Amino acid sequence: MRVLGIDPGLTRCGLGVVEGSVGRPLSMVAVGVVRTPPDLDLALRLCEIERGIEAWLDLHRPDAVAVERVFSQHNVRTVMGTAQASGIALLVAARRGLPVALHTPSEVKAAVSGSGRADKAQVGAMVTRLLRLDAPPKPADAADALALAICHIWRGSAQARIDAAMAATGRTTR
Asked: Where are the catalytic residues (predicted)?
C-alpha cells in the first residue's frame, strides 16, 4: 500500500509518501512541503496548496491519503489556516476517488512512538528509525506527514479489515 500523508498548514503543508504494509518493512518514497508566502492573498495560497498536492498525487500515485485531523488550538488564526489547508487536501483526494482518512495528532504520535504525548523530536526520531533514514526529515511538517502515512498503513488497514468484517455481518463500527 502506498499512502500520501498530509500535515496541513497554510505556510507549510507537509507531504510524505510511504509504501509498505502491516508486518513488513516500510519505505519512504518521497517527502517535502508545499510553502506559501504569508503576504500572498489567502485564496491564492489555497490554490498553491491545491496545485502542490495535485502534483504529488500525479507523481506518486498513492492508494490512499491520510490527513491530520484539525484540532482545537488557542490560536484561532492558526487553526483556521490549518482547517482551510485540510479542506483543500480532502477535496483534492476526494475528487480523484481516493480513500481519505483523518488521524488525530495523538493517534499518529501513539502509532509511531508508542505515546500519544510524544514531542516533535521523538516523532522525528521514530520516523527516521522506522523508515531507516540517515536523518530526521526537515522541517517537522515533513516528518509529521511521513508519520501520518505510517499511522495509516498500520492503523488504517486494520480499521478497514474491521469495517469489512462488520459490513459482512450487517453492522457498522462508526
From this structure: 7, 68, 141
Is 68 one of the annotated active-site residues of the chain? yes
Residue 107 among the catalytic residues: no
Instruction: Output the pTM of the full model.
Output: 0.89
Q: Which of 39, 41, 63, 141 is catalytic?
A: 141
Q: How far apart are CA 108 and CA 67, in angstroms?
A: 10
10 Å CB burial of residue 172 (0-12, 13-18, 19+) is exposed
> Domain range spanning residue 104?
2-168
pLDDT tens string, the chain, 174 residues long: the values are 999 999 999 999 999 999 999 989 999 999 999 999 999 999 999 999 999 999 999 999 999 999 999 876 677 778 898 999 999 999 999 999 999 999 999 999 999 999 999 999 999 999 999 999 999 999 999 999 999 999 999 987 555 555 556 667 777 655
173 within some domain: no
Number of domain units in the chain: 1
Active site residue 163: no
